[in-house]
Design goal:
The chain has about 375 residues and is an alpha/beta fold. It has helices at about 15-30, 50-55, 80-90, 95-105, 115-125, 140-150, 165-170, 190-195, 220-235, 250-255, 275, 295-300, 315-320, 335-345, 350-360, 365-380, and strands at about 5-10, 35-40, 60-65, 105-110, 130-135, 155-160, 180, 205-210, 235-240, 265-270, 280-285, 290, 305-310, 310-315, 325-330.
């Protein structure tokens, strides 16, 4: 008999988790030989723009029909996102309860805004086995620690995308409850399709690429300060930053102030990042935290040389402490410039070996690898 797997992941902005959920569902549909039926719960229309992908892959979707209560699908900011989370908790309480009671999923995988399904499961003892995904190093403040100490007693499984997060959680939870399940980042069909597109910019430039939302986490202002020195030493270097976000005006002002318009380009959100990565001399990540760092994996698979901060907690793992790329101390300009200089002076053999090592690591984040890890958990529970 086919087992039902529900996915819960309400989101308010363009984040990497969206891709992780979609690819996870696709991997189950593709590789499980119809042993599992994956379904995405669409709370307030956040998944509407992905319905074509969902339909093309014959994935089921359940609408809670709360669209009218959420005028905006995408928002930015800490307080507004917390407000949306509270709205979801109260408005989706009964719709989600009746959806679970009616459909009786065998597994319920929770990614974002997890307080509501965790609370419902604790109150009503659903027969569904709850799988909670935790990424990063969650701050266990008094409220969260108290809440988790109660609701997680009825959670079957906790998964993490990196070993560092798994080891961190062992101090607070039963280690036999925690599993490493790497995110399904590498979708070969999608990559091969996008690789044939051609970048519009000139080929004779030294192109460096950075990708991510223009937010404090990605630390792009730090990158601009570093690149200002790099450009002054070598005006043939060019940086392309792909992404949108609240820091756009701040970054634009910096570029104009220091006359960097011919060397640093804010390209906005790009559906196809591979047309940049395949032509980049290096991919640069300056984040203050990542778990695991989707663009690092995508850049690795595209054979781009990696230059990354050593922030918590994915980059260290993906770059294997420097074997798979060049690591600098997070948020340290002197360290960045020193490592950048080392990269420029490195011989071809050294860089080639780092690329090979990084690509081997990136394959651990394929759809099939993700399915294999997740399937072991599903089959044993």
């Amino acid at each position: 008999m086919k087992k039902k797997i529900f996915y819960w992941s309400p989101f308010f902005s363009d984040i990497a988790t969206i891709k992780a959920v979609l690819n996870s569902v696709i991997s189950i549909k593709k590789f499980s030989k119809n042993n599992f039926v994956p379904t995405i719960i669409n709370v307030f229309g956040e998944w509407d723009e992905f319905k074509k992908i969902i339909q093309d892959n014959q994935i089921e979707i359940i609408d809670l029909r709360l669209n009218k209560y959420f005028k905006k699908k995408k928002i930015n900011g800490f307080f507004l996102s917390r407000y949306y989370q509270i709205k979801i908790f109260f408005l989706a309480f009964l719709p989600l309860f009746f959806t679970i009671k009616k459909n009786k999923p065998d597994f319920f995988i929770l990614h974002l805004v997890t307080s509501l399904p965790l609370f419902l499961n604790y109150l009503f003892n659903f027969k569904s086995k709850i799988i909670l995904r935790i990424s990063g190093l969650p701050k266990l403040n008094i409220i969260r620690k108290l809440f988790w100490s109660v609701v997680l007693k009825k959670v079957s499984i906790i998964t993490t995308p990196t070993l560092a997060t798994k080891n961190h959680l062992k101090n607070n939870f039963n280690q036999n409850q925690i599993y490493l399940v790497r995110d399904p980042i590498i979708n070969l069909r999608e990559i091969y399709k996008k690789r044939i597109e051609i970048i519009k910019h000139k080929e004779n430039k030294n192109i460096y690429v950075a990708i991510g939302r223009l937010t404090k986490q990605k630390n792009f202002l730090f990158l601009l300060k570093c690149f200002k020195s790099i450009v002054y030493n070598n005006p043939n270097n060019h940086l392309y930053i792909l992404g949108d976000g609240e820091d756009y005006e701040k970054l634009k002002e910096f570029i104009i102030k220091y006359n960097l318009e011919n060397n640093i380009f804010l390209e906005g959100y790009q559906e196809n990042i591979y047309q940049y990565l395949l032509r980049a001399k290096s991919f640069i990540l300056t984040s203050l935290w990542e778990d695991p760092g989707f663009v690092l994996v995508e850049a690795s698979y595209s054979n781009a040389t990696l230059i990354s901060s050593d922030c918590d907690n994915g980059p260290l793992e993906i770059l294997e402490n420097g074997n798979n790329g060049f690591l600098f101390k997070s948020n340290n300009i002197d360290s960045f410039l020193k490592v950048f200089s080392e990269f420029e002076k490195s011989d071809i053999t050294n860089i080639k070996q780092k690329k090979i090592n990084a690509k081997k690591m990136s394959k651990k984040f394929s759809l099939f690898s993700h399915f294999t890890q997740l399937n072991k958990i599903l089959e044993s529970n």
